[in-house]
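Reading a protein record of the kind used here takes little practice once its layout is understood. An example of such a record is reproduced below.
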Amino acid sequence: MSGMGEVRAVSGKAPVGQPARITVAKYLRISNEDTDRNQAAKTESDSIANQRDLLSDFISRMSEFDGADIIEFCDDGWSGKNFTRPAVQEMLGMAREGKIQCIVVKDMSRFGRDYLEVGNYISRVFPFLGIRFIAVNDGYDSIRPADTDSLETSFKTLLYDLYSRDLSKKVRSAKKRKAENGEFLSPFAPYGYVKDTERKNHLIIDEEAAGNVRRIFQMAADGQTTEQIARELNIEHVPTPMKQKRREGCRREWKSICGDNFWTRNAVGVILRDERYIGTNIYGKRVRDEVGKSHTVKNRREDWTAVENAHEGIVSRSEFERAQEAMRKFTEHPCRPSGRPFNKKIRCGICGHIMARIGRKNPYYICRTPSVTDAYACPTGRMPEKDFMDVLKAQLHAQALYALDTSRIWEEKHRREKQDVKSIQKSISILRETYTALERHIRELYEKNIFGEIDKETYLKEKNAAAEKRDSIRAEIDALEAKLQNARTDGKLENKLVDSFSKYAEIDKLTAEIVSDVLQEIIVYPGGRFHIVWNYGDELERLLLDINMEDKAENAED
């Protein structure tokens, strides 16, 4: 399906007793701009099918791949300007775990169009992991040392990068022209509408959901607040926009805090402010702040493309204006986010929603979910901001001292040894080979059991022994990688947790900047209990792993 990442095992069967197989990954990708991918009769684009045929034919002609396990990774409908694609992430994850020995693509642009990132993988990451990389149409094969750092390879990746940027600009320009003609370009129709199957890029009314939209506008015009509207809709079990889409068979996964989605003040407010319900097509509310990246920022209203009467409105302009006037009457005016040290960082531990900050002089936090639904046992009391500040300050001191003590322990343990990066990398490489060999051995044991060459008892005994050794080696690899990441070239500790928290051991006052630096979020539970989640948790885990493995090594020597 377009826009989805797909992984499939497509072949691989070697006779029992033959040398252990390698695993070859085929990677396929096509972006949203592919001209035929939206045709209803096709489940994937012709370009994906062509890539698959090309790579399958290439692999079949390579004698060294005879009997290899072939895994296919497909990102259909994903830009090559970043690596947040699901299938490529799955493939790279398996590569880091030593489960893939070779990656084959049609050309380098299929793997990615970011010059620096593609170059980093080809010249550094893949050689370090011992992975062979082949770009068929580019004639590139990393097994030939001259290919890796050649001028031709660098030039091609740069051209792909420049081409992608130029294409992105042209696509943006084409979309803007279409929007100016009143065409609807978003991937999903707003609640109350469906996409017209007879007229491309046009909306038609979905009468069932549109009835709910009209009712929401009428309730607002009658003086009900967004909170009151949301509560009434939840009591009557009116499907939310997300639930409505799922009922219609949409398979897209929306970001949702709760699996059991419900109406909120914000969800109602979004509908009431949406000018598309009066027939105005809006394009360009948000724009990507960098080519190829998924992150977007708000666009100025004067830069929007707004076309009136682009489709039939669900409510009249007078009904829309009455609702806007009612909303202005009940709108709260909280203090600016700059005065909120915990802005969007305090979350209800029951429903998962961000808690609301109320008041200016003596602010407190409440969960608004109980005001719109009784389905969750959320905390109902007021949580003064001062309580959070006092506890956070005390615990920050403790965290800072802990970070300093941990760094001193690390420094002491590594004081006499200078980190030999090449030696550590070589050890990791050897361990990875052993890890991969053990995984192959486990697969071979399974095959021997299936074909009756060994009995079940022998299989389980040998498999468990191999799995235990494999897991031990995985722990050694993790520890060595942690050591490699923790140590600077001069042998000093390099760890973001220590760098950040050690600065705050003697602070007297918490500022919004300090809170932003050290705090991920505070999760609040009923009864006034809350849990602090600090930033840099991965950095702490890495540091402790390094220290603990040193202790184990010393104990083993004793």
